[in-house]
Amino acid sequence: MEIEKLKKRAEEQFSAHKEEIEQIGEFVFEHPEPGMEEYESAAYLENVLERNGFEVKGNYVLPTAFRAAWGTGKPVIAFLPEYDALPGYGENNNEMAHACGHNWISATTLGAAIVLSNILKEDEATILVIGTPAEETTGGKCDLVKAKAFEGIDAVFQMHLGPKNLLAPKTQAMDSIEFEFFGKASHAAAAPEQGISALDAVLLVFSGLNAKRTYLRKSASVMGIITNGGQACNIVPEYAACRFYVRDETREKVKELVAMMIDIAKGAELMTGAKMKYRFFENSFDDLNNDEHLVGLMEANLRKLGIDRFDEQKELGGSSDIGNVSKAARTMYFEMNTGANPPVYAHENEFLEWVHGKKAEATIRNAVLGMAWSALDVIKEAKDQPEEDRD
Length: 391
Known about the structure:
alpha/beta, Aminopeptidase, Alpha-Beta Plaits, six-stranded mixed β-sheet, four-stranded antiparallel β-sheet, 9 helices, elongated
């Protein structure tokens, strides 16, 4: 493969499809939908891919997930669009909006796939676009990983907008745990001694956690809310519940924290007499593990595109289901600077200005070409391998 000629052709194909790629971002931006309800966005993305020669399977594992394939060869390269929006925006803070830039992710991942499908021969590689819903909530990628959707994939690419250029972004592993307590109702004034307060048990969970906080690792984060604390002040609450997000650097460390929380809840059960149940109410997110070789390829290609400053993420914070994908397939997840000065951050109102329109044109181009060029490098390396070493 004449890699430099192919990369030049990728540039030409981006220019040829520039309006179509940017329109992808605009359509999804203008049709924000909550996680697992992205029916309009998913259908639109599926139609764009079908129009560009991809074989599309909708309702793939999840109602708003999809799998689109082009080509028949090896290696297999996957791009992962996201398209769920966030609530709480607009004039009255009651509208959905793409304040995390998932519309931009849709445009850039589909853009890279479309560019590659126009410069490769069908037997040279397989290009997949796997639509991944509900990143902001339940984590659709987790369900796709469980369904083995990433088996046989040689490289996964995705980018995200942010305030920095991060080749090695860090995400925390996370479990979502709910504790329910079942006590006994009684009149709070006339016969309190006959009641068992489930709310007292919940409050003891928070007290137990707070007693432990001083001794937690600096990387740990356990935050919770009371979701049910009773119904009336004159009734001893017979039912109460609370939920926690438990995060740390790695899956193993999160397991230790979860075990601590369960022990605290068991202590609350013993102290009050209220019976305890627990469950994990959302998917478990793993920490991100970028593939070092793919990181090197991406850095070299981004430098060719004029991105010559890369930052280091010093603080942990936040979790994403891309971490689960990185444990199932070689993954390159890059955070690209929006170009805003002063910086803007995801989920802020100001972030909306940088995920579409004129302010997103440069980052869309760099993201599409950065991923497409890196995919071409992976394909070339696979072709250059001795035949006996190939899978």
